[in-house]
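In the present case, backbone shapes were mapped to integers, as reproduced here:
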Amino acid sequence: MPLLPEDFSYLRQRVLRRSGLVLEPDTHALVETRLMALVREERLPDTSALVARLRSQPESSPLHQRMAEALANHETAFFRDAPVFDALRTTVLPALLARRARTRTLRIWCAACAYGQEPYSVAMTLAEAGLLLTGWTVRILATDFSTRALVRASDACYDAQEIHRGLTPELRQRYFHQERDGWRLNEQVRRPVEFRPLNLMAGLPPEAPVDLVLLRNVMIYWDVPTRRAVLARVRRMLHVDGYLVLGAAEASPLVEDGFTRHLIGQTSWYRPAPASPNASAGTPLEDARRAARSGATP
């Protein structure tokens, strides 16, 4: 039985609340296709029966989580959008290293990390710069709302198709070794990456400020209120002299979101906007942050 309009409406509402994903009205066929594996796992006749089972359970149930995961797009690749990593290597990373020379600490957050290719690409970039072997404390927090995706990411083993998407033969040889079930990333690159389940819709946990946030190809699926709310949370987690990078097809944060745009190479990067000159004096720490921000350069 085809997905009924009222069932599709129910799925749209539940997925929006759980993951921020906006299902467009013309995606009935795509939704049915992505849910078929879950229909089979539950031994149900069709998607309408699956929706009936979802309606009978609380939204916090594991079945609702599995439904949201099934509808999420985990399409990714190593070094996806090469100009972003070019800018990271040539401009952003050197700037951050200069500012963190005293503490020799670098914190990076990859949100919606899917199967791990993005945080591992960042780790390889840092390894190529020598940061994983020269006394720096490097932490790459990689989060996703999909626990299934995180299990795969933590395993750090990729099939032949995945390993050839975005990786040069030199990087593949340097950082991977072939096993019977695929290509596994070496421990040096895996060590600084910490995977953690996180639903961006549910707020962000208390964290030390991060230097770089990669929130790429996520907000393209969100409506404006969701996007604005998440950007506000991200800004609170970002150092005053840190960087945010989004996907190429995503709308730029507005001034009202508290960011300024900086063109680096072929890519747009965003920095927390300077505090208003009329703002009242803050704590010494806040004053120090404002001073550091006022002298920041790309």
